[in-house]
TrEMBL record:
All residue ranges annotated as the TonB-dependent receptor plug domain in the record: 128-238
Taxonomic path: Bacteria, Pseudomonadati, Bacteroidota, Sphingobacteriia, Sphingobacteriales
Biological process according to GO: siderophore transmembrane transport
Cellular component terms per the entry's GO annotation: cell outer membrane
UniProt-recorded name of the protein: TonB-linked outer membrane protein, SusC/RagA family
SUPFAM superfamilies in the record: Carboxypeptidase regulatory domain-like (SSF49464), Porins (SSF56935)
Amino acid sequence: MKKKLLATSKCAVMFLFALVLFLGKSNNSIAQTNTQISISGKVKDNKGNPIPGASINVKGTSQVVASDANGNFKISAQNGESLVITFIGYVTQTILINNQTQFNITLAEDSGKSLNDVVVIGYGTQKRSDVTGSIVSVPKARLSQLPVTNVLQSIEGAVAGVNITTTSSVPGSQPNSLIRGQNSITASAGPYVVVDGVPLTKTGGSLNDINPNDIASVEVLKDASATAIYGTNGSNGVILVTTKRGTTGKPVIRYNGYVGIDNIAHILTPRSGAEYLQKYADFLKQTNQTQTRPVPNIGELPAYNAGTTTDWVDEATQQGQIQDHNVSISGGSPDVKYFISGDYLDQKGVVKGYQFKRVSLRSNLDVNVTSFLTIGTSLFLTSNNFDGGRANLLLATAMSPYGQEYNSNGSYTIYPMNPEQLYTNPLLGLKTTQINRTTNINGNGYAEVKFPGVLTGLKFRLNTGYTYFPERSGSYVGRLANDNNGTARSYNASTNSYTIENILTYAKDIKKHHFDFTALYSAQERKYNSTTAGAVGFINDELGLDNLGAGATQTSNTNRDRYGLNSQMGRLFYSYDSRYLFTLTARRDGSSVFGANTTKHGIFPSAALGWNIMNENFMKNVKLFSNLKLRLSYGKTGNEAVGVYNTITNEVSARSPFNGVSTIGVIANNLGNVLLQWETTKTANIGLDFGILNNRITGSLEAYQNKTSGLLLNRSLPIITGYSKVLENIGKTTNNGLELTLNTQNFAGKDFRWETMFVFAANKNKIDDLYGDGKDDLGNRWFIGQPINVVYDYKMTGVWQTGEDVSKQDPTAKPGSLKFADLNGDGKITADDRTILGQTAPKWTGGITNTFHYKNINLSVFIQTAQGITRNNPDLTYGDETGRRNTPAEIGYWTPENQSQTRPALSYNNTLGYGYASDASYTRIKDVTLSYVFPQHVLDKLHLGSLTVYASGRNLHTFTNWVGWDPEQTTYGRGSGNSGANQQAFAADWTNNYPITRTFVLGLNVSLR
């Protein structure tokens, strides 16, 4: 299939190239009879100030120059041709050349400039005023002025309907992203990411591999009209990233860099020595035990007698540091433009051992080979390094302040609270060898042919992309880390992906009618293979990971899979007089993951209407509005959401004793379903874009509804069949939402300006059906008519106090036990008294950015909020484990004296498994940036093009009722997760609990002339 596709693409390009040569030759023979003349001029604004960097283009040709620092330009053209002069923020002007060689050009400011902005829409661009789908551009200031390691951090809270959550600040980790809530119950809900027109998702890489300094723009596609062109890949929304390209002019060298520090935003401080002793005494008293020593363990007595304590959290943490240095050079001629950049990021985490180093290189090139043929490349290489053993923060919070950190020889004590062996030293991980590295080698290229003559407006573009993504991880745990045998593990994997896209576009204007057609044929393929080797039983720890063959017991495993997707797409855009807009899209995808007994193809259509009300004659005398557009769309998308080979029934190998000999056999693993197909989501969207008071107030208001059917859910099976579940297309959900974006220019004076950006999004999903019988799934906490993810538990009403009568409500309770509501009124607390206490996703989110400018000083303050969140609180549920661990000072406990109504007694065992549902809503001062832009007269003296210095703070303060490290952070209970997950960079594992951090940086942006 791959060879056939390559051959087809090659033939298509050769045919089109020959046709263009034929048509272009006839045109050129006529054009050569005309004489080129030299034209010069100056571009200025309506105040007479020169405009440097304005683009002067000979219409219909590739000839283009930029005005210099004084607004002057020179260009060659012919009589009868036209010059097109453009500059961002000004009205484009077209001037006919009629025997004139000198021009003084004045550009007028464009009060509706945002409407003429060109936005990326997927497989092309479009004027914002013509957009019919729900497409949001991330504010440029968020992309260029925030020192972040991942571009998603810039989007967090700044785009309505895009929920970015930072569940961990592990260096190099990527935030979670969700566009317009959750449609599927168990399938992946993350958006599809496209960089420079070529997919990044499904190649092994992520946005963590894209240097934020290289990004020029980010667009988010949200409704079906906007995402249907990506078919199954667009079911959860699409993020389009466009990197910086070269521009006409002499080379410009830029340096962007910053250095900073990280601190834990909020420390859940363990009890001090005195508080720990009191807790132990209270525990023994509440459990009717006799106290024989002041501390729980003999190993704690030496430190107690010496009056010394250890701050274990302080020992496990450190001052975090971060630095980033980026150098780029861009420029070019009218025919060759280039952008080259290199970046080095180095981050030391706040928990000892955590670190992240990233080196990235990028080269973007665009070449006008002829007047009709343009080729280009987008190449980048990113190397990520997460090496190093790591301290365990959760264990650090559990340690007794009287625990012994070191042995007499200076090595770490294995069991600081000896003979207590439930808790090991939280610093043992620093004595392990840990390797974790990834590399993303990505090469994208394109060739675009523009047809002249009678075929003007017709273009063919060939996009190709190839990604090689190798991964390597390994570990060795030896004697110093409490493994007397020595255990080694090595993992090597690689992902190879390619994308080929053939895109044909045709644009035509007939009087007031505008037509724009796009057709696509594409193919994607991904191949993955891995090798895992392990060994246990080493004589010593000298070689460890470097000699697995020295281990007494050897293990190995290999894995390989392949994924393929073939697609065809057509999109038609029509507008009449820039008033009435219509977009019709259909995409057909064929995926290799679906069953053999059903079609592997799906068709995803959409339609959208737009009405530029402001362009109507009856609005000409309406001074209040400067923009008013109504948008309607409806469409269908699909989510394949099936792992490779999951439709196939398979077994796994297993060892079993037979006649006294260990024999390898097979056992049931996965029951396949050859009838599996797509999850299908039908989306309706209505939007209103507006501008008021000459665009002093602009924004958009949108409402949407997503209805998803054929959910990919596991149906439970009787275990006697040999399988416990099977994946089927069952279940339905509904997802509704409302979004508001508002931009205001509050004050615009000569020296002082104040702008505000406000975003708001409300979302509610619910389960309409699960298994076709109208019944809830209590085991998975899925309820018909309720949100997908809810907290289902007992309703806590307080704590039983001494003297209260428990017989009529909870006969098993004692003073200090949690008090729960008897919802069914049967006089006892049972599982039937559980109820839905809230949802884990926010009911609404918002963000407000205030930006102040005073002369050359700029101040930006961004506040983010997420409300209506309910989560079980793991910082409350772990308790003190029968008095054997330290607990946070912030989390108290009941005594007959304090009569707490929120915390139970130390003797309470929580036999009901109550999760301590808590309000996780929060409002956060997300980032504040103060910058100074040096004025032109200073730059002239320094011979610089630009110079900006800034100071920025992130996660400065959080307002919340949450008791714990942070309401946004995911905390894993002790012993949870994959036992080998510490080999992964950001494993969902208890060894990787990592708090949200507060960051302060100083930065410098400078460009050379």
